[in-house]
């Protein structure tokens, strides 16, 4: 292991506030082995920044440019693909420019998905040129990210001239960027008697007729069309995300292999069924994204030992989860939480196993192990933050238990 005692993550200047104190108490419960393990798993702040930059370079990041009129369903697509609302995805979100906003998932510093959302596209819009310029400027930037245009149209909206013009301009200049036509709000044209979605894809003359017209309007512009109906839970349609699998498959077909694989992993396991609103469920979507990253980076050679890279990912994950639970953590504090949780877990749950591997641990770990370990840590952090939020003292025993279970389940999943 490259990391040693010099410059690990420490709370700054003895400014251990309430949060850090709790971490301290928590730490007090870990064994000596854990304390030792902790040292192996700490990473200096400068190193964290370096690692983040290197990891970001390797991530199979997809940038989706969502273009559509207000209320066309763009934010709903963000919610479908990430499991969280655009407002939550947008935490740490900066207004991009006048006509577009940008959201990064799961986080700005380590994005797997970036959404550029047009906000200024009206019917009669003097800003169209400005918007086109912004989008062209976006596309002009050199990047390793895979990009895709998603033109979003409500199924009963035929006033789509501006959208088509924008699409044409972008396509003309960037013909290599694939383009998807996403037709939303399907149920609005269902015959009155139909109160549920038919099996996907819907085979209804009403849908077919309108779709033919829309496709005519966008002829030659889009590589693929996807039919969607992303309703709200209270609308009572099942699945809530009707067409999500088709969207996933379409994106996967159009994107390079690595990005396609990441999207598959992110939308694994019935993501379209239902979305919980509980913290834990939202948290899981973030944990999943970081676990996918952990597997990704474990599989590529980075100029750092794997363990510090995982620790760095986990520090970021804990920072994001903390935010979800209303705790704003400095990287140092997040590092403290990771150390406390990871140290205890590694020592107590798989300590013996681990000791055997420690000489090799710093250099290479299996992708599935990296993912499962990250998953377990995220689950542990949710319990930790949940307890804090409920005014309880985090219970190390409970956290260890949750992590052990999560680790075993995740090992299966990421195998
Ligand atoms: N039934 C149904 N409702 C949808 C669908 N997509 C979006 N909606 C609803 O339409 C409304 C607008 O959807 P958004 O996803 O916020 O649309 P938007 O394009 O982001 O809108 P702006 O941010 O205002 O430009 C919300 O109430 C959504 O729940 C869909 O496919 N089916
Ligand atoms: Mg929106």
Notes on the protein architecture:
The chain has helices at residues 18-28, 32-40, 45-58, 74-82, 86-89, 128-140, 161-173, 205-217, 244-254, 257-266, 279-299, 306-324, 331-348, 351-361, 367-389, 396-413; strands at 62-68, 100-106, 111-118, 146-154, 179-184, 224-227, 229-230, 241-242. The chain is of the alpha/beta class. The chain folds into two domains: 12-56 and 279-413, no CATH class; 62-255, P-loop containing nucleotide triphosphate hydrolases (Rossmann fold). Strand 2 and strand 3 form a beta hairpin. The protein is globular and about 65 Å long. Guanosine-5'-triphosphate is lined by residues 68, 70-76, 184-185, 187, 228-232.
Summarize the model shown.
InterPro entries: GTP-bd, P-loop_NTPase. It contains 16 helices and eight strands. The chain is of the alpha/beta class and 415 residues long.
């Amino acid at each position: 292991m490259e990391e040693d005692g010099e410059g690990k993550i420490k709370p700054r200047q003895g400014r251990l506030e309430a949060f850090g104190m709790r971490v301290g108490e928590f730490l007090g419960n870990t064994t000596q082995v854990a304390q030792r393990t902790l040292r192996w798993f700490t990473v200096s702040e400068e190193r964290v920044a370096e690692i983040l930059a290197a990891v970001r370079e390797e991530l199979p990041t997809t940038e989706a440019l969502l273009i559509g009129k207000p209320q066309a369903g763009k934010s709903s697509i963000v919610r479908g693909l990430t499991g969280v609302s655009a407002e939550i995805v947008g935490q740490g979100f900066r207004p991009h420019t006048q006509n577009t906003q940008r959201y990064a998932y799961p986080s700005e510093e380590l994005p797997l998905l970036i959404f550029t959302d047009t906000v200024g596209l009206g019917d009669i819009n003097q800003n169209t040129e400005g918007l086109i310029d912004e989008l062209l400027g976006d596309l002009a930037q050199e990047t390793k990210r895979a990009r895709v245009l998603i033109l979003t149209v409500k199924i009963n909206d035929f006033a789509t001239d501006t959208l088509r013009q924008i699409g044409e301009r972008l396509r003309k200049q960037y013909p290599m960027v694939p383009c998807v036509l996403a037709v939303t709000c399907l149920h609005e044209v269902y015959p009155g008697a139909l109160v549920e979605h038919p099996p996907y894809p819907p085979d209804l003359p009403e849908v077919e007729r309108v779709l033919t017209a829309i496709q005519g309007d966008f002829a030659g512009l889009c590589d693929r069309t996807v039919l969607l109906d992303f309703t709200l839970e209270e609308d009572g349609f099942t699945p809530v995300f009707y067409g999500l699998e088709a969207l996933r498959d379409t994106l996967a077909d159009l994107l390079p292999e690595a990005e396609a694989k990441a999207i598959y992993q992110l939308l694994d396991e019935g993501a379209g069924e239902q979305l919980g609103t509980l913290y834990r469920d939202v948290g899981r979507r973030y944990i999943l994204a970081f676990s996918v990253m952990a597997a990704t980076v474990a599989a590529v050679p980075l100029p750092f030992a794997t363990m510090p890279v995982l620790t760095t990912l986990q520090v970021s994950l804990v920072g994001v989860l903390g935010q979800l639970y209303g705790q704003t953590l400095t990287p140092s504090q997040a590092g403290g939480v990771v150390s406390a949780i990871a140290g205890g877990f590694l020592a107590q749950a798989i300590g013996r196993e681990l000791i055997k591997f420690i000489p090799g641990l710093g250099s290479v770990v299996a992708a599935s192990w990296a993912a499962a370990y990250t998953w377990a840590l995220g689950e542990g952090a949710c319990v930790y933050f949940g307890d804090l939020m409920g005014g309880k003292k985090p219970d190390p025993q409970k956290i260890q238990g949750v992590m052990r279970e999560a680790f075993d389940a995740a090992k299966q999943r990421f195998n």
